[in-house]
Design goal:
This protein folds into 3 domains: 327 residues, Glycoside hydrolase, family 3, N-terminal domain (TIM Barrel), CATH 3.20.20.300; 354 residues, Sandwich (Jelly Rolls); 118 residues, Immunoglobulins (Immunoglobulin-like, Sandwich). 56% of the residues are buried. Strands 12, 13, 14, 16, 18, 19 and 21 form a 7-stranded antiparallel beta sheet that branches. The protein has a 6-stranded mixed beta sheet with strand order 9-27-26-23-10-11, with helices on both faces. A 4-stranded antiparallel beta sheet has the order 15-22-17-20, with no helix packed on it. The protein is an alpha+beta fold and 875 residues long. The protein is globular, with a radius of gyration of 28 Å. Belongs to the glycosyl hydrolase 3 family. It comes from Stenotrophomonas terrae. One of its GO terms (molecular function) is alpha-L-arabinofuranosidase activity. Keywords: Hydrolase, Signal.
């Protein structure tokens, strides 16, 4: 039954909350007035239960959409947030967010038609993350738009507008600006850390993006953080949520806690002594919605006199106002967004946009002329641990792409007529029990039955963990290489070609049976290896050769050696079950005569004309509050900015072959690749490039696409001593306050063409309206078309103590044909572009004096400059 049928049935009884002529707030207040105290408290938790007597359906507020609809089955996966920031393309960000909201709306209404009201099926999305990526060690920095407040604000506002839509009555979705406001690691300390930046750093660095999303984006929700800020829990801070957010910025929406952050108030921060006190404190200070269960104690808190029922009423009314603004209590025909058909999900146009976003996000860090690769090459060696890894496309908080293209596949697709040999070479990091080191059995050597023309194995997907009953889904899977990665501490059933909730498969407690035939290409001794989280059993010709039918906390592998004959078909069956949380399963092999992986990679390199090394990081080692640590990583954060040692050693050996080596990096943060910069031919940063990332990389390597992404973070040198990770002072951090020489500066990115800047025109003084007009001519002086990101920075010539060295205050991504020129115009508003926070006055000020406008291709590439005067303000 659709959620709106019950309210319609009640309409005849004159329920005032169904009166569509009244305001949403009035209707919400009328509904809340009919609830008991216990019902109100239950509605203030993310998994809000139904109130059948009032026609209120169950609703879970928890949904994710960082770079596509996440954790809700099949959805278009765009490049990770940090990669979208690298496009420096605000209109593109708006297009991406619009597609995400289209798919989110379509999926939500499909869930309703199926009678589902669970987590990851709603309309309130906890994105974007506009925290400042102040330190490259932070594992969650990949979720942000980088280190600069201005870039973050511009990208964030565009994302919010795309999610929330442009209807004057109904919101398309609710976006959520998170995590207010001083939150960027360390992950291991986030539940008890107290961040105390200077007020100058708070207002000049940590707050501007949030302010912009509230004032310009009209964002409907804000999420608090786990840590304390100036001694207060960020999710129960009177200063942040009452004084700043509501009083100073005029925020009208609702605040949600980060998940289980309310528990931290009494359990880890020890600000109060009990659950009731923590819940009351959070609500009184402005957090209306909890992700967690502590608000279940609110009725007891009212009885103890810790909070009034009127304060509860105000919070619940805000929440139901938001739900009503989303159209949840109105007939679907009144809600424009409810008419988006299910067919939009993963539409071809969305895949095309994912490819465009990936193309625009690629950053060419170095090129000695080897790129673009020549079409006359005969052999290319592709080596490295992330070349054929779907996880290297996805980062974290992702959905399930229909047909993800790995970087290896993208290179093969682009290298028409060129032999491409692949060798993984090394594991991602040292000390990792890495089942993905074993190559998957390719579809060419599998068939679902003796008489089938298809390639792969027959997969039967069951709703239970014991392979019982009728399969909910039957299909042919080309390879068995799945990863349902949920992250921590949340649940996330996602994979390469997946079993997902939308297909009738639950998030936990499911099982799969694959069956068919194995067709060895050569005779000899094979090692067949299976890996899973949780249980698996493998049968060959009816004999059980592997048996690990037990729960496990992580992906574990086992193998068996078998003598197999070419030309013979062997019956093959793999059974698998998932108990709970993370899930994954693989079926791989090593063929007779296979060399050790490292030697195999060097052999491929020696016999190639050029080597493409694909390595870096994945969401398996950098991310949110991880419990498994490896050398160079701690709790999802990084302790070493260099490539993991395994990869460094392989790169050195590849270089020693004398062949040109092109490096393609995956990851969500800055990498100290000094040695590669000094010794190798080219370096391309691909980030986590989404479902079509491999296609984009292949096109860029062969020149079908001219890379033009720019770094949204500073890349530091390997020997750079960084400030203490838990010190939230901005001094020494980011291009704005770092005094040294970076490996690659903020805004850096090369091209296959070159651009000239000339004829900068800027007013000598600000106009009476406080604005400054700036124009510059940009020309493509090369022989091929390309994009340039024109960047405008401002610096104060009489800089005071604590002033930034320079600040980004404008950027435009433009496309120019070979020989084409264009005038690029900027308008600066002094009240925004020149302001900084004065602690003595406890306010933003715009200091008079001389300023310099710098325009060029990066923060370290000022091609043209001009000065202007800001006269003292006359009272």
């Amino acid at each position: 039954m659709a959620f709106w049928t019950a309210p319609l049935a009640l309409a005849a009884e004159g329920k005032p909350w169904l009166d569509t002529s009244a305001s949403f707030q009035t209707r919400a207040a009328a509904l809340v007035a009919q609830m008991t105290l216990e019902e109100k408290a239950a509605q203030m938790q993310n998994a809000a239960p139904a109130i059948e007597r009032l026609g209120v359906p169950a609703y879970d507020w928890w949904n994710e959409a960082l770079h596509g609809v996440a954790r809700a089955g099949q959805a278009t996966v765009f490049p990770q947030a940090i990669a979208l920031a690298a496009t420096f393309d605000v209109p593109l960000m708006g297009e991406v967010a619009t597609v995400i909201s289209d798919e989110a709306r379509a999926k939500h209404h499909q869930f309703l038609r199926e009678g589902s009201h669970g987590r990851y099926q709603g309309l309130t999305f906890w994105s974007p993350n506009v925290n400042i990526f102040r330190d490259p060690r932070w594992g969650r920095g990949q979720e942000t738009y980088g280190e600069d407040p201005y870039l973050t604000a511009r990208m964030g506002v565009a994302f919010v507008h795309g999610l929330q839509g442009d209807d004057p009555v109904y919101r398309k979705l609710d976006a959520t600006a998170k995590h207010l406001a001083v939150h960027s690691g360390p992950e291991a300390d986030r539940h008890h850390f107290d961040a105390r930046p200077s007020k100058r750093d708070l207002y000049d660095t940590y707050l501007p993006a949030f302010e912009a999303l509230v004032k310009e984006g009209d964002v409907d929700a804000v999420m608090g953080a786990y840590n304390r800020v100036y001694g207060e829990s960020a999710s129960a801070s009177h200063f942040l949520l009452r004084d700043l957010l509501r009083r100073d910025w005029g925020f009208k929406g609702y605040v949600v806690s980060d998940c289980w952050a309310i528990v931290d108030i009494w359990k880890h921060h020890k600000i109060v002594a009990s659950r009731e006190e923590a819940a009351a404190l959070a609500v009184k200070n402005g957090t209306e919605l909890e992700c967690g269960q502590e608000y279940a104690t609110l009725p007891a808190a009212v009885r103890q006199g810790l909070i009034s029922e009127a304060e509860i009423d105000d919070a619940v009314t805000r929440l139901f106002t938001a739900r009503m603004r989303l159209g949840m209590f109105d007939p679907p025909e009144r809600v424009r967004w409810a008419r988006i058909p299910a067919s939009v999900n993963q539409a071809p146009a969305h895949d095309a946009l994912a490819l465009k976003a990936a193309q625009e996000s690629l950053v060419l860090l170095k090129n000695d002329g080897v790129l673009p690769l020549s079409r006359t090459l005969k052999r290319i060696a592709v080596v490295g641990p992330t070349a054929d890894d779907t996880m290297a496309l996805l980062g974290n908080y992702f959905g399930t792409p229909a047909a993800p293209v790995t970087i290896l596949q993208g290179i093969r697709d682009a290298a028409t007529g060129i032999e491409v040999r692949y060798a993984r070479g090394v594991d991602l990091v040292e000390g990792r029990d890495d089942p993905s080191a074993t190559p998957l059995i390719e579809a060419a050597f599998l068939r679902p039955s003796a008489d089938s023309p298809e390639r792969g194995l027959r997969g039967e997907y069951f709703r239970t963990a014991d392979l019982a009953g009728t399969p909910a889904l039957v299909r042919t899977d080309a390879q068995i290489g799945f990863r349902w990665d949920r992250g921590s501490p949340t649940d996330n059933l996602l994979a390469r070609g997946e079993a997902a909730p939308g297909q009738g498969i639950p998030s936990d407690g499911f099982s799969i049976r694959w069956s068919g035939q194995l067709l060895p290409p050569v005779s000899g001794r094979y090692r067949i290896e299976a890996a899973a989280d949780d249980g698996f059993r493998l049968y060959v010709d009816g004999k059980r050769v592997l048996d690990h039918w037990t729960d496990n906390d992580r992906l574990h592998a086992d193998g068996v050696e078998l003598d197999l004959q070419a030309g013979r078909a062997y019956d093959l069956k793999l059974e698998y079950y998932d108990a709970e949380r993370d899930a994954g399963v693989r079926l791989g092999w090593r063929m007779p005569g296979a060399k050790p992986p490292f030697e195999e990679a060097l052999d491929a390199a020696r016999n190639a004309d050029v080597v493409v090394f694909v390595g870096g990081l994945t969401g398996d080692v950098e991310g949110e509050e991880m419990t498994v640590n490896y050398p160079g990583f701690a709790g999802g954060d990084r302790t070493d900015l260099r490539l993991p040692a395994t990869q460094r050693h392989l790169l050195e050996a590849l270089h020693a072959t004398g062949k040109p080596v092109v490096v393609v990096l995956t990851g969500g943060s800055a990498l100290a690749v000094d040695w590669a910069q000094d010794n190798l031919s080219a370096i391309l940063m691909s980030w986590y490039p989404g479902q079509r990332g491999g296609t984009a990389v292949g096109q860029a390597l062969f020149g079908e696409v001219n890379p033009a992404g720019r770094l949204p973070v500073t890349f530091y040198k390997a020997d750079q001593v960084m400030p203490a990770f838990d010190d939230y002072s901005m001094e020494g951090r980011t291009y704005r306050y770092f005094r040294g020489t970076p490996l690659y500066p903020f805004g850096h990115g090369l091209s296959y063409t070159r651009f000239d800047y000339r004829n900068l025109r800027a007013d000598a003084k600000l106009a009476d309206n406080g604005r400054l007009q700036v124009r510059v001519d940009v020309a493509n002086a090369g022989k091929r078309a390309g994009d340039e990101v024109v960047q405008l920075y401002v610096r104060r010539l009489q800089a005071g103590q604590g002033d930034a060295q320079q600040e980004l205050r404008g950027f435009q991504r433009i496309h120019l044909a070979a020989g084409e020129s264009r005038t690029v115009a900027f308008e600066l508003d002094a009240q925004q572009a020149l302001r900084h926070y004065d602690e003595a006055q406890a306010a933003y000020v715009v200091p008079p004096g001389r300023y310099e406008v710098r325009i060029g291709g990066s923060s370290a590439d000022a091609r043209v400059q001009a000065q202007f005067e800001l006269e003292p303000r006359r009272e």
